[in-house]
Amino acid sequence: MDPVLLFAIVVALAVVIGVFVLRRRGRVSAQGRTSEETRARPETMSGAGSLADRLEKTRRALGGRLKGLFNLGPVDGEFWAGLEEALIAADVGVQATAEVVNRVRATDPGETVEARQVLHDELLAILDGKDRDLHLGRSPSVVVVVGVNGVGKTTSIAKLAARIEASGSKALLGAADTFRAAADAQLKTWADRVGVEIVSGQAGADPAAVAFDAFQAARARHLDVVIVDTAGRLHSKHNLMQELGKIVRVLEREAGSVDEVLLVLDATTGQNGLAQIKQFTDVVGITGIVLTKLDGTAKGGIVVAIERDYGVPVKFIGVGEGMEDLIPFEPRAFVDALLADA
Ligand SMILES: Nc1nc2c(ncn2[C@@H]2O[C@H](COP(=O)(O)OP(=O)(O)OP(=O)(O)O)[C@@H](O)[C@H]2O)c(=O)[nH]1
Ligand SMILES: [Mg+2]
């Protein structure tokens, strides 16, 4: 090839790559100057193992029951009763199960293989079409993470921060759990592992003040997202619930709005955990759910009950204890995984 032409191609490539890198940096560091909404939906990270592997317990329990139904018998009364039982056992919920089974029945499938396909589509129809993006507006945008004790708030925050950093944005963690001993040390350990900054307060300090300080620090350092960890609390603890309202109000006043309030639910608590959605929504508006510990339960069908009965989108699911084990919830992949053994 003509050396001059080769030189021109190399220069053109260098310019294109340079412009791409600069534009990317500009987007990340344009705090406070852009009103354009950025949507942090980092592409699916590949944790170890497939989604179907991580959902093994649910998959085996639900799939095992369904397999018998779909492979053996005819579409008769026993088949419908078995289908209902299998869905309820997977914690799809009584009402959602009745709805799904009625819809499958209404298509009058002649063969079990048809019923399987309709079941797949009906489960997907309940979950599909919801907005699951993490909506991060101006910088620093604010994410507050709430939930009862031990559901996985702190761990999920670390995983979420890792995703945000991997997508090229910068996160800061606010340790507003000043209630539980050593909660800030736990968050600090995670922050060090992820490589993000953390702002914490004295034990017993006003959590709203810590959240405020964290937001101020993120703004001063031109970071993109501040994620605020909060103490686990039961809805019956009136003072703690009021305190949560205060954290959100203070952040709203300071930041203009809180971009996301994520409620963390532990999937292993099954239907019992669902009341938490209403309890927390009554105090702070919930924008999405992080459903943790799906790897440790045979009741993964809970996702269907959450979305049908409460209409709040599950934005992320926790499928393990590692840093990469928080993945965006994708309905099709999820339903495919649920029925993989059926
Ligand atoms: N298997 C599994 N374990 C998880 C998952 N998410 C969190 N955990 C574990 O759940 C336990 C509690 O997690 P934390 O993040 O401390 O929960 P928390 O909600 O912050 O707890 P408090 O601050 O005490 O209310 C830890 O042992 C985590 O490793 C998950 O998706 N799968
Ligand atoms: Mg915690």
Short summary of the structure?
The protein has 342 residues and is of the alpha/beta class. The chain has helices at residues 3-28, 51-54, 56-71, 77-89, 94-106, 112-127, 153-166, 183-194, 207-220, 238-255, 275-283, 302-310, 331-338; strands at 38-40, 134-136, 141-146, 171-176, 197-200, 225-230, 260-266, 288-292, 314-318, 326-328.
Helix-residue proportion: 40-55%
Radius of gyration: 23 Å
The gross shape turns out to be: globular
Task: Name the strands of the widest sheet in spatial order.
Answer: 5-4-6-3-7-8-9-10
**Could you tell me how far the N terminus lies from the C terminus, measured between alpha carbons in angstroms?**
58 Å
Largest sheet: 8 strands, mixed
Give start-end ranges of low-pLDDT stretches: 18-48
Number of strand segments = 10
Count up the helices. 13
Beta fraction: 5-15%
Q: Which ligands occur here? A: guanosine-5'-triphosphate, magnesium ion
Structural class: alpha/beta
> How would you spell out the order of helices and strands?
HEHHHHHEEHEHEHEHEHEHEEH
What is the average of the pLDDT values? 86
What does this protein look like?
About 9% of the residues have low confidence. The chain has 342 residues and is an alpha/beta fold. The site of guanosine-5'-triphosphate has 21 residues, from helix 7.
